[in-house]
Amino acid sequence: MYKGWGFFFLCYNDLCMGKYIRIIRTYRKTSLFFGLLLLAGIVNVLMRFKTPIINGTLFCVNAAIISFLIVFWIDSVRERLLPTRARLYIVLAGLVMLGYHLMRIFRYRVSKNDLPVYRFTAYLYFIPRVLIPALLLSTALYLRFEDSKIGRRGVRIVLTVASAFSLFVITNDLHLLVYRPTGDFSDFNMEGGHFKRGFGFFMVFGVMLLMLIISFYLFFRSTKKKKRRPVVLSLIGSIVLWLFVTLFQVFVVDRFKLPKMFNIPEIDIYSFILVFECCIRSRLIPYNEKYDAFFKKMKTPVMITDPDLHVLNVSATPINAPEETLMFSRKAPVYLDEDTRLNSTKIRAGYVFWTEDEHELHEEQKRLDAANSLLSEENDLIAVENKLKEQKARLDAQNQVYARIASAIFPKQKRIEEILSNTTPGDSAFAKELGKVCVLNAYSKRKTNLLLLSEESLPKSNRELFLALSETARFLKCCGVEAAAIGEEYSELPLPDIHALYDTFETVIETYFPVAKTMTFSLKPDGIRIAMEAESTPELPETQLPVNCEESDGILFFTIRRKEGGVEG
After folding, report:
1. With contact defined as beta carbons under 8 Å apart, do 212 and 136 qualify?
2. Where would you tag: which of 61, 118, 143, 429 has the fewest CB atoms within 10 A of its CB?
């Protein structure tokens, strides 16, 4: 029976030890940290020998272990945390902790025989005691407000207040508001029974406590609702543990002169390390740990190597690429096949490689190329269609112009045809009839020229109307009429008014040139002036513009004026 129970006990013991070993292996660095911390405490307990060599050696070992642990933690923070201002504040807090530890060494091993320096180092203790909560609050402000203006301003205020209170404490000898000596100032050595705590002491600790409360509140607000309870419990547990150990040290260990593993500065340091670790481990601050499990479940092809391209982490979907290909991909992306692109980037510990499947992208590119080709063909067709439309519009415009010309000169051409058909060469009236034809042809020619013009192509000051009058005067001489165009040649009449004035002028000429002897034409700013000597005064037919006729000394004066406001085109 006893053998059975013994076997059961051994099996249970092996199972428990195996569980602990697995935990230690999983948290190697944490286990090493606590192991060295325990060793430092044991060394501190053993420092009770009266032999100076042994005591000094143990002190150096204890100081070296504690310094190593602080530096080790700072380095782990630098490696684990992403490069943000939160990491900067935590690293600064670690450096302040290291300074705190070195101040204690200086106080008790260097300056103990120099009373003013010994007292001043006690004041200097308050610098880390105030700065570490201030840096904790700065970290909380960053986590809550990130890089916003409120967060940066809050950090500046917090650090300024911490610096002011630190200065307030280290200048205690000037005002004695933090510590007051109970006896003569020359015996004021900051040991128990030689001083009393003043109002400033409680004010400084009140500020430290307020910083901690605000920090925990901001941590609470920065945490998601599902994770608030474990985060808050871990933070509160850390502070409660710190307060309990501190009070136990002051009221039990120091009062009864018991062996102590750690001193007050070390308790402060490790307590705040615990608080910062709670923030990191609870993922309030993103950190780089537990990547093995993460990579095992990740389906995306990703691989992390050291600088020599030795694989450190690989995802569930591996990257099948030789070392030469990995080397080339460090400079530029490399295609493993038609659709798989291998990318890389440099990180502090080596390189990260990952692949991208571009099959869908290539398929979309092919569809896009096909669509672009179709659009290009359609654009070509549209361009040809627009060109044809433009040519058709140009031809239509020309046909409209030709139709207007044909409509305008058709009556004259019809009349010319009648005159020529009713005239026989050799008749006495042949020369005169031929002169009529010349006058009508001159009108047809000039009317055609005017119809080919447009408002855009016609200069503002032009000779078109004067040239038409001059050509009519030249061909009137074929009819035996002495005619001439005189005076100003240029006018600024618009094209519709020129057409109306010329048509009216032609009607007057065709009516009077059979009975006229002499004629002179001249341009006026608003029309045409005709002076004529005629044998009779036939009645004018209806004209496009009104014609004013006056007689003076046997001379007829005709005035043709443009309409007020002009003629519509």
Report:
1. yes
2. 429
- Residue in 324, 331, 330, 300 with CA at minimum distance from that of residue 313: 300
Residue 504: partners with Cβ closer than 8 Å, 6 or more residues away: 528, 543, 544, 545, 547, 560
pLDDT higher than threshold 50 for residue 22 = no
- Distance, in Å, from the CA atom of 531 to the CA atom of 522, rounded to the nearest integer, reads 9
Using DSSP, state whether 36 is helix, strand or coil. helix
Selected from 3.30.1490, 1.10.3470, 3.40.1840, 2.40.10, the CATH number assigned to the domain covering 292-357 reads: 3.40.1840
The helices-and-strands tally (H runs, E runs) of the chain is: 17, 12
CA 236 to chain centre: 42
Work out the average pLDDT over 452-473.
Answer: 83
Nearest of 431, 552, 541, 532 to residue 482 by alpha carbon = 532
The Cα–Cα gap between 44 and 38 comes to 10
Q: Would you list the DSSP string of 23-47?
A: HHHHTHHHHHHHHHHHHHHHHHHHT
pTM (two decimals): 0.54
Q: What is the DSSP letter of 517?
A: E
- Alpha-carbon dihedral sign for residues 335, 338, 339, 340: negative
Give the chain's mean pLDDT.
82
Q: Phi-psi bin for 176: left (phi > 0), alpha (psi -120 to 50), beta?
A: left
CATH 3.30.565, domain 423-561, yes or no: yes
Q: CATH 3.30.565: which residues of the chain? A: 423-561
Q: Are 462 and 507 in contact (CB under 8 A)?
A: no
Cβ neighbourhood burial of 251 (10 Å; 0-12, 13-18, 19+): exposed
111, two tokens:
């300056």
pLDDT tens digit sequence for 234-247: 878 888 888 888 88
Do the strands 482-486 and 340-347 form a parallel or antiparallel pair, or are they unpaired?
Answer: unpaired
553: left (phi over 0), alpha (psi -120 to 50) or beta: left
Which amino acid does the sequence have at 535?
A: E
CA distance 460 to 454: 12
Is pLDDT at 202 greater than 50 in this prediction? yes
Distance in angstroms (rounded) separating the CA atoms of residues 515 and 479:
10
d(CA 231, CA 222): 10
Find the DSSP H helices in 333-463.
359-421, 430-452
